[in-house]
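HlyD family secretion protein, Metapseudomonas furukawaii. Tokens?
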Amino acid sequence: MKRLKTFLLCGCAGSLALALTGCQEQAQTAEPPRPVRTVIAKAAAIGEEVAQTGEIQANVETNLGFRIDGRVATRAAEIGMSVVKGQLLATLDPNDVQNEVLTAEAEVKSAEATEGLARSELERQRTLFAKQFVAQARVEEAEANWRAANAKLKVATTGLQTARNKLTYTELRAPDDAIVSAVQVNAGQVVDAGQPAIKLSSTHERDAVFNVSERIYTSVPNDIQVEVALLSDPRVKVIGRLRDASPTADPATRTYRVRIALPNAPDVMTLGATVTGRLILPGKSLIILPSSALTSEAGNPAVFVVEPSTRELVRKPVVVARYTATQALVESGLDEGDAVVTAGVSKLRPGQKVTFEAGEVAK
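Tokens:
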């Protein structure tokens, strides 16, 4: 029994000695401060370049239609045809309208004869009244008859002019130089007044039309300049300005249609050509960091920052506005002057002691 107690006392003493020795060795082998490479966080206003694909469209597109009902007699317009102002595009069968003109001409002649007879009778009655052969009442009666006949002549003349105008409505002519972009009637077809027949796209002014997201739509100022280039030949470029923008989003795509006016656009920018528009959105205050500075915390972006007083690492969550191939543009989470570690972040931990690499000084 006495030997057992002696053995236990010796064992405890040995264990205590080993523990003390281990603590001394751990204290002697404490991790030295790790040298790190840092960059000082500085905010700057940085614009974002946006590229969007669109197409060339005419600023003015017109749907032409006949002003009267009728049957299409001829159609000279074809899709893609270039037309000039006044060029005949289509006609209606004019027979019925020509008959109306003939009827109106006959009515005018009849009214002219009636008016001439009434005028002669009025002059005769005035002569007789001057010689005191008839009473004043006969003169007044003749004058009333002449006024009625004259009014009927004016009505007939107006009717003739209307019939002649209607005859011109059987012809559909181009109101301006343009390109035929759609044809919706054929010879022999019966059409109603105002029914779309031929669509023209004006060649005077051209626009680049883009469908943009809500973020771009709400960020673009009215005086923005857009560089528009042909997709097939990027060397062909025009600087355009915002002409108009749709006030509502497309219900299917949730995008907004934006039209960019293209002054003096070259002829190679034909209607329907695919183009690329580039613009710089107004900048906001961002901090540029190399991509190597990013780590994560709870699945979100974060960076290591050196605490100036203790030279210990602090992990800060950040909000990244956007990325480039080699950089991260941080929107929030950092303060001006923070010393952000830019290399080896996967081997670092919060609270770790660090020193700055040669040539670097804590700010």
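Residues 1-21, 23-28 have pLDDT under 50 and may be disordered.
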